[in-house]
Design goal:
Blueprint (H helix, E strand, L loop, with lengths): L2 E4 L4 E4 L4 E2 H7 L7 H5 L12 E5 L2 H4 L7 H6 L7 E3 L4 E2 L3 E5 L8 H10 L16 H19 L10
Parallel strand pairs: 1-7
Antiparallel strand pairs: 1-2, 3-6, 4-5, 4-7
């Protein structure tokens, strides 16, 4: 599974290939938004650009996320190529991410170098196979029996109590 290394937070987080970067960050409690984004954001539609992040590393790091969307091209046209909207990016391979890149950290350079220096697991980029059990099939059959039984029941007469 791909790993997202959040530099500012000092955390590595696993996710499924193809999972939305914003969804993973919020699920894991990563502080993705600055003050404006906390007060109001578009909820992941790509309209407010408050969830932008910076992909750290070389060109291959940029390929760890899905390609830029038309929304990103429009909203980030005057921003560095390494900036992405978390709500529009899908994680394909392990990647190093700097949240809120516009806010500097005192030891930012050291943290970024350390994050890039430690190897990221490449991880398989496939969804895990979930085996269906026979119990699931039996339960589905039970539901059908209940539906068939309720449709064959005689309608209630006005004097009957529920």
């Amino acid at each position: 599974m791909p790993v997202i290394r959040f530099v500012r937070e000092g955390r590595d987080v696993e996710c499924y290939p193809g999972e939305n970067l914003r969804d993973v960050a919020l699920r894991e409690g990563i502080q993705l938004y600055g003050l404006k984004g906390q007060l109001g954001n578009c909820g992941g539609c790509g309209q407010c650009i408050t969830c932008f992040v910076e992909v750290k590393g070389d060109q291959s790091a940029a390929n760890s996320l899905s390609g830029r969307t038309a929304v990103e091209d429009a909203k980030l046209r005057r921003r560095p190529e390494s900036w992405r909207l978390a709500c529009q990016a899908l994680v394909e391979r392990s990647v190093v991410i700097l949240t809120r890149p516009q806010v500097s950290m005192g030891d930012q350079r050291r943290r970024i170098e350390a994050a890039l220096g430690a190897p990221l697991p490449l991880g398989p980029t496939v969804w895990p196979v979930v085996e269906s059990s026979e119990d699931d099939d039996e339960e589905a059959g039970d539901d059908e029996d209940v539906q068939n039984q309720s449709s064959t029941d005689a309608p209630a007469t006005p004097g009957d109590e529920p």
